[in-house]
Amino acid sequence: MSSDDVDNDEQVKELIDMVMALTDKNFDGVITREEFRDYVLQDFARFELLGKVLPLRSIVDEFIQVIKGKQPHAVSKIFAKERQYCLNEPYIPPKGDSLYPVALEMP
Q1: For residue 88, what is the DSSP state?
Q2: What Rg do the C-alpha atoms of the chain give, in angstroms?
Q3: Shortest CA distance to 23 belongs to which of 14, 13, 33?
């Protein structure tokens, strides 16, 4: 990874931290619809900045139905499968029951 990539990654992290600090009013690490609405209603330019990152409500509702009532491990597998599909990642079968394809060990 080049120093330009590292600098870009740091800039993105700083932008995310800034948006979270301005938007996440209860500091729970999640921007709720209400927090998002309150934030963008203050200035429409904020909606232009953040609006396209949110999925349609119908997609959110459909996904909630898919994961509703499932155990956390099953939900993690669903998220991993969705990520693989959305990012066109190659399928790497997990090793055993792990979510990771390799055994991770602490040094």
Answers
A1: T
A2: 18
A3: 33
pLDDT digits (tens, 9 = 90+) for 76-100: 888 888 777 877 777 666 666 555 5
The predicted model scores a pTM of 0.42
What pLDDT, on a 0 to 100 scale, did the predictor assign at position 6? 66
Work out the burial of residue 23: count CB atoms within 10 Å of its CB; fewer than 13 is exposed, 13-18 middle, 19 or more buried.
middle
User: Where along the chain do its domains lie?
Assistant: 1-54, 56-107
CA distance readout (Å), 32 to 7, 23, 69, 102: 29, 9, 21, 35
How far apart CA 63 and CA 70 sit, in angstroms, is 12
Alpha helices in 1-107 (DSSP H): 3-23, 33-42, 44-50, 57-67, 72-87
- Condensed to tens digits (0 to 9), the pLDDT of residues 27-82 reads 888 788 788 888 888 887 877 777 666 677 788 888 888 888 988 888 888 888 87
Let me know how long the chain is.
Answer: 107
